[in-house]
# Entry
Amino acid sequence: MCKLFIATGSLTKQQALKLIEKAASIFSKTQKDGFGFIAYGSNGNVATGHYLEPSNYPGFNVSLPEWVDCNRIETGNIPSNVTALVCHGRTATSRVMLANVHPFISKDTALCHNGVLSWVGSGPEPKASNHCDSEQFLNWFNSMKSPFNNTKANWSGYGVFGIINKRKKTLTVAKCGSGKLSYCSNDNGVHLWSTESHDLESLEQ
# Structure
């Protein structure tokens, strides 16, 4: 099963980078099929990172020698004030490839998901480039005016979601079915969630 770590509040660039590095280190022990993150800033700027080999996470925007083969895609720059951060460690239920590393991004929405979802709605299944259920869900999610009101009627399964909408400036943390989610906050007003309570304890230290 995939793992999620989510933080919201007011984080400096260095604090966000430290949390990303911690999440990559912790997740790489069990999640072998990809690591990714999205960092959203108070100024609307966004940075994303997608890495196929979590155990070889080099750090964000790090220059590597030409002879080092690092299968990654990075966009943007970490904002100076990060207000929402979602990190994802992947255990694949569909093809292992960089294109299937979370977050999935469509229009103004970025989604990270752990769990398994199956389409049970009427009509054809939502499309996904590489048959990943999380991408299917995001494409369906963006096509609906009230997706959470219609999720149960169209999907079966379980999971936890971290969804950032850049245009609406929102972070949505949700779970369904048997999805597990632990929460805590620190003295600086930062709110933290993780799919594993022991991971959350390590990340907040």
Observations:
- Residues 113 and 161 are 5 Å apart (CA to CA).
- Helices lie at 13-27, 133-143, 147-154, 197-204.
